[in-house]
Amino acid sequence: MKLAQLLSIFEELHWGADFDAEVFNVTVDSREVKKNSVYVAIRGTKVDGHTFLPQVAEKGAIALIVESKDLIPSSYKGAVVVTENSRSAIDQIASRFYGDPAEYMFCVGVTGTNGKTSITYMVEAIFKEFGWTTGVMGTVDHHLGDHVWKSHMTTPGPVELQKRLSEFRALHADAAVFEVSSHALDQHRVDHIPFNAIVFSNLSRDHMDYHKDFEDYFKAKERLFSEIPYKYKNRKTTAVINADDPYGLKIETAGGVRSWYYGEKRGDFRFEILDESFQGCRINVRTPRGEHVFTLPLTGRHNIYNCLAAITVGMSAGASLDVCCNAMEKFKGVPGRLEKVENDKGLHVFVDYAHTDDALTSVLKSLNSVRKKNLMDEKLITIFGCGGDRDKGKRPMMTKAALDQSDLVFITSDNPRSEDPMLIIKDCLKAVPEEMIDKTVFIEQDRKTALSRAFKMANVGDIVLIAGKGHEDYQIVGDQVLPFSDVLVAKELLK
Length: 495
Hints:
- With about 500 residues, the chain is an alpha/beta fold.
- Helices cover about 30% and strands about 20% of the residues.
- It has 14 helices and 23 strands.
- It has helices at about 5-10, 55-60, 85-95, 115-130, 160-170, 180-185, 215-225, 300-315, 320-330, 355-375, 395-405, 420-430, 445-455, 485-495; strands at about 25, 40, 65, 80, 105-110, 135, 140-145, 145-150, 175-180, 195-200, 240, 260-265, 270-275, 280-285, 290-295, 340, 350, 380-385, 410, 440-445, 465, 475, 480-485.
- The strands form four sheets. The protein has an eleven-stranded mixed beta sheet, with helices on both faces. A six-stranded mixed beta sheet has the order 16-17-21-18-19-20, sandwiched between helices. Strands 1-2-3-4 form a four-stranded parallel beta sheet, sandwiched between helices.
- The longest helix has 17 residues, at about 355-375.
C-alpha cells in the first residue's frame, strides 16, 4: 500500500473535528499503541522504532508505516506502507488526521538561534491590534487568549503540533505563530504547514550536541525557506530575513517566495535609534510604506531587531504601519526575555534566557549601550551557568562573553541534568585566568546563593543580569525537576 492510498482511506473515514482520537490513534510510541492504532516506525538518534514492530503488530495496530519491512511479522494482516522517510510521513498523516487545520489560518514560522520567542509574541500583539485571534506555540507555552497549554519543547512533534492547530481552529483562530527549531526542521515536523510568512532572526553556535557541524545547523534552518514553500506554491509566502546577519544573506528561498529584508542600515525595513534607556527605546522605522516614530517599552538593540521582524510580518499580512507600531508601543514584553525585576534597592535587575555566547553578548552589549548613553559608571554584574548534557564547546565561549562585557561575573549552575555541576563549571572556567578568581570572577554552585551574593555586592544603580534560564520555573538536577524561578527567587532576595 502507498501512503496516498492510506490517506484516501482516512478521508473516507471522514477524519476531522469529530473523530475520536482515543479510538483511532496515530503514534510513534510503541507504548501508546492500542487496537486500531496507526504506528509509525521512526529511526531516532538513540532508539529505532522498527525494533518494536513485532510487539506493535501483536497489539492490533491497523496500519504500520515503516522504512523497512524486515521486522514485520509474516502473520500481520494490517496495512503496511513503506516510505523513504517515516518522519515526513507522520507529519503528513498528522495533518490529514486533524483535518489539515493550518490550511484555514495565516501561518507564521520563526526560526533562528535567538529571538524566536520574542518575535512570536510581538507578531501576536500586532495581529491582535489588527483584529485577528492568534494562537502561539513556542518555548514558554502554547496559548490562544486565555487558553494555555504547557510546552515541552520549542517546536512540538507533528502529532501534538497538528492537534494544537486543530484546537486553535476550534477556538476560531485567524492565525498561528510558531517557533521553529532546527531539530523540528531536521526532523520534518513542520513540512506540511503552508506558511504565509517565514522569519529568520539570526544564526550563531547552538545545538552542536545534535548537529554534526555549523553548516549542518544552518542547512536545517534554511529548509524553512528553500524546501518547505515548494510544497505550497499556491500559497503566497513572504520570507522575512535579517539583512544584518551574514547567514541571512546566504539563505536561498524557493521560487515564488517574496523576500523582505530588515536591519539597521540596510534592508526593505530599517530602524534608527533616537534614544534608549532601561525603560525603553525611541526609534524611527522606515518601510516601503512610510515611516513611523514610536517608543518600544523594552531595553536592548536585539529587541528592536525582533520588533522590526514582527512589524515586517504584520505588514505582510496586510496590517498598516500605524497598526503595527501602535501594537508595539503597548507591548508588555515576554516572560524571561530581558524581564525587569522591580525592587526598592535601586538596582537594575534583569532576567534573560540567553544561553548561547552570542545571545549573552547581545544582551550585555545592549545593557552597556544604555549605560554608556546615560553616562553611568555603575557596575554590570552577570550571573550565568551552562546546561548539562548539552554542547560542552560553548561553555568557555559563554564565559568569555560574560567577561568581555561585565565588571563582575558569577558562574553557577543552570540545569545540570545528569552531569556533575562542578565539572560543568570547570569547563566554563577554561576561559578564566587564575588571577581573576575571587576578584572579578566568583564560583558559586548553588544558584540561589549566587544570586544572593551578587545582590550583596551590588550598589545603588548597578546592573545585574541573571542569564540562562529566563522563563523557566524549574531546575533539572539529575532526574529531578525542582521548582526554581530566577524571577521569583530574585524578588524574594530583594525584598
